[in-house]
């Protein structure tokens, strides 16, 4: 089991609060980063969440399970 970073916590919180809604990676970055750098980190975290089954990738965005 790994640890949860601040960005990962923010992503999980955002998607949990809006369960069932669809987000693109850009929309997630816009909500999470507030102008700070770290898009590659968000992309990596989202990929991990898809790989572990927490998120489902769909053709027009990401949707929480």
Give me the secondary-structure topology:
Elements: H1 6-17, E1 22-23, H2 25-33, H3 39-51, E2 55-58, E3 61-64
Antiparallel strand pairs: 1-3, 2-3
Helix pairs in contact: 1-2, 2-3
Features:
three-stranded antiparallel beta sheet; alpha+beta; 15% strand; globular; 65 residues
Task: Provide an overview of this structure.
The radius of gyration is 11 Å and the shape is globular. The longest helix has 13 residues, at 39-51. The protein has a three-stranded antiparallel sheet with strand order 1-3-2. A hairpin with a 2-residue loop joins β2 (55-58) and β3 (61-64). It has three helices and three strands; from the N terminus they run αβααββ. It is an alpha+beta fold. The mean pLDDT is 83. α1 packs across α2 and α2 (25-33) crosses α3. The two termini are 20 Å apart.
- Tally the beta strands: 3
Helix content: 40-55%
How many individual helices?
3
Low-confidence stretches: none
DSSP strand content = 15-25%
Order of helices and strands: HEHHEE
Task: Evaluate the radius of gyration.
Answer: 11 Å
Strand order in the largest sheet: 1-3-2
Largest sheet: 3 strands, antiparallel
Question: Which structural class do the helices and strands define?
Answer: alpha+beta
Quick rundown:
The protein has three helices and three strands; from the N terminus they run H-E-H-H-E-E. The chain is an alpha+beta fold. A three-stranded antiparallel β-sheet has the order 1-3-2.
């Amino acid at each position: 089991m790994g640890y949860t970073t601040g960005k990962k916590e923010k992503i999980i919180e955002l998607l949990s609060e809006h369960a069932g809604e669809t987000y693109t990676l850009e929309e997630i970055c816009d909500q999470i980063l507030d102008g700070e750098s770290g898009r590659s980190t968000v992309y990596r975290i989202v990929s991990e969440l898809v790989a572990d089954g927490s998120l489902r990738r769909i053709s027009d965005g990401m949707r929480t399970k």
